[in-house]
Amino acid sequence: MALPSEYQLFMILKGRGTQFIGDSIRPYREGEITFTGPNLPHLRKSDVEGKKDSKDGYSEGIVIYFNGNFLGENLLQKEEGIKLNQLFKKSLRGLLVQGNTAYEVQKLMQNLLHLEGPESVLELLKILNLLSETKDMEVLASPGYINSLKQGDTERMNTVYAYVMRHFRRKIALEELAELTNMTPTSFSRYFKVHANKTFSEFVSEIRIGHACKLLLEENMNASQACYASGFETLSNFNKQFKGITNRTPIAYKQEFGN
User: Fold this and answer.
1) Alpha helices in the chain (DSSP H)
2) Taking the mean position of all CA atoms in its chain, how far away is CA 228?
3) Quick one: signal sequence residues (predicted)?
4) Structural domains of the chain ordered from first start
């Protein structure tokens, strides 16, 4: 999980996987663009990590880091900088760029790679101006999310996330995570809830449902197959969790988002 002190624009060029931004868990795929503010925890886990026989390789992307002060301290307080200031505040919860705006930003980010000096600054300003004007964005972390992670916490949560991503297809005992983090089960439960803004069981369910969504669409599995391949023990619990997280039944989800 990254905890940068700068703003970050990230575009996925290749690969698919799961993305954590604040308390948001969602799949990512080629072409997606996210904009995150300083000190917002985020982590991306490629679908091929840990697969020895993968021929696809890991995810690749373009990342642009910049400090908010590059515009000067006074601009964001003036009328000309109001929209930029609002954009920067929204980015503290993470933003997913969508629609035609994503297409335009993709071109600008690729062009920025070949620029230097004042021209690169002007191109970055074009991107930021476009983002400040558009409504084609989704805020990722929940309204109640409060970033309370310190560097040591970030590393510990990163360890937990990585462990769950490797083992979510089976039942994960709370004692395993407690031992992994050198805590008692009760202390770990409380710690995780504070830092992830959700219980550990809710977190695991979101990971499993996210995986099931991929299986429904990309592997063309039916609900029963996706259920057991994602770590659920009963189809009834799977259907309940799926509806609670996606607001759709597995069949409706597949009909709406499938090809």
Assistant:
1) 82-90, 99-112, 117-133, 151-167, 174-180, 185-196, 200-218, 223-229, 235-246, 250-257
2) 25
3) none
4) 7-139 (2.60.120), 151-257 (1.10.10.60)
Structure tokens at 38: 């300083």
* Distance of alpha carbon 154 from alpha carbon 61, whole angstroms: 23
Report how far residue 57's alpha carbon sits from residue 15's, in angstroms, rounded to the nearest whole number: 8
Kind plus residue range of the DSSP H or E element containing 139: strand 137-139
pLDDT in tens, 51-96: 545 555 567 899 999 887 777 666 556 666 788 888 998 998 999 9
Dist. CA 34–CA 57, nearest whole Å: 21
Instruction: Read off the tokens for 60.
Output: 């690749």
